[in-house]
């Protein structure tokens, strides 16, 4: 029988898979900052009633919770912007498998901080996963002697690195405070940063007008991403961070397949092999974990 933590990790997997598919559409229509603002503002509104009684102790500076949450928020901001831009530029079937780099990064941090180690089978699967990522991120054609990277691949690697740190920080912050407060604070932090940017660049009016025309896209994107982070944060408090990351990372299966079957994205033969390898390795890593 699956534990509650594992069930929530699977829930995060489903929400993130659909959420990333919707984020790609939103980022292409509203831009990276506009999409992030909509998501985080939605999260603040939805989660505020659940954290109201915790705000007094948090802002009393009696412990280090505020510092931990602020650090988590700063890393999440960088990860989110890089993630959205990689999704905006690239194909879901290319970008999503690269994001499996989150697994080894978060797992290594969990090992260093909490002593959550990896067995030999997990290490071997990570190697297979890396091989798949190398295949899926390359395309035909050469510039001089250097193979050209698929569009969005470099950003996807950077975003995966920051996402790996972020997922670990989310688990760390959720254990230090609580999973809802972690989500609420990071959402508030990002909402303020995004609002300042959008207002200063004169894009608030256009964003409101565009969002009004596509309310369904805005609300569904925000809802799926918010619920994914809440489910993941809870999973990290009820199970090992490395296991929660490995299982939830399988969202690439859903997002990649949506990219292929809904967006009609095409991949070359060796890229399909890389996709299969990376997905299989991610799934097996979740199983053996």
Give structural notes.
By secondary structure, the protein is mostly helical. The protein has one domain. The protein is 81% helix and 3% strand. The protein has 13 helices and two strands. Strands 1-2 form a two-stranded antiparallel ribbon. Helix 5 packs antiparallel against helix 11. The longest helix is centred in the N-terminal third of the chain and has 48 residues.
Structure in a nutshell:
With 289 residues, the chain is mainly alpha-helical.
Number of self-contained structural domains:
1
Per DSSP, the total helix count is 13
| Secondary structure category | mainly alpha
**How many strand elements?**
2
pLDDT averaged residue by residue: 84
Q: How are the strands ordered across the major sheet?
A: 1-2
Percent of residues in helices: over 70%
Order of helices and strands: HHHHHHEEHHHHHHH
Give short descriptive properties of this protein.
289 residues; mainly alpha; two-stranded antiparallel sheet; 2 strands; globular
List the helices and strands and how they pair.
Layout: H1 4-51, H2 55-58, H3 65-89, H4 92-98, H5 102-114, H6 120-136, E1 138-143, E2 146-149, H7 153-176, H8 179-200, H9 204-213, H10 215-238, H11 241-248, H12 251-261, H13 269-288
Helix pairs in contact: 1-3, 1-8, 1-10, 1-11, 1-12, 3-7, 3-8, 4-6, 4-7, 4-12, 4-13, 5-7, 5-11, 6-13, 7-8, 7-10, 8-10, 10-11, 11-13
